[in-house]
Amino acid sequence: MLELSSKNGLNATPISKVAKEANVAVGTIYHYYNTKEDIVKELYTMIVQDLARMLVLNRDESKPYKEQYKQLWINFYNYFIANPSAFYFMDIVAIPPIIDSEEVDKNVVHYKGMKDFILQGIENKQLKNVELKLLMQMSFGNLITISRIRLRQELEMDDKQIDDAIEMSWDCIRLIED
Q: Class for domain 36-173, per CATH?
């Protein structure tokens, strides 16, 4: 379902097509899931959990905050570049009404490490003290765009371009003291 829906969109991915691709009967799928929406929700949760684990990989808390931010950004980027189907699936479903607010709220717990990291940055006067959702969107929303540009092969995104993107992302959120 992940591959098909990321290529064709959810509306163009009927359960019959999923069953054919998986080489199982449609009834087998409905034995485990009541609706297509249930499958989508489970895939969404699986990707969120996987991504949340990847975000904190190689994070060295002894390093300066900006270096830790850079590592989170790179982890996020590398996850989506290595998992383009997950990227496109999330790009399609991660906003309501496909994944409703209740489902999003249920999965927020998986991003606790990232949320705590951002809150620590505010507390330590590394990041602007603004609404958390806005800060996270400014931190990682541009990363989604950069991932899309790379996956669509609009830019190669070599090391210099990645460093530039991270620096621009950092400049959006860092606290500038007068």
A: mainly alpha
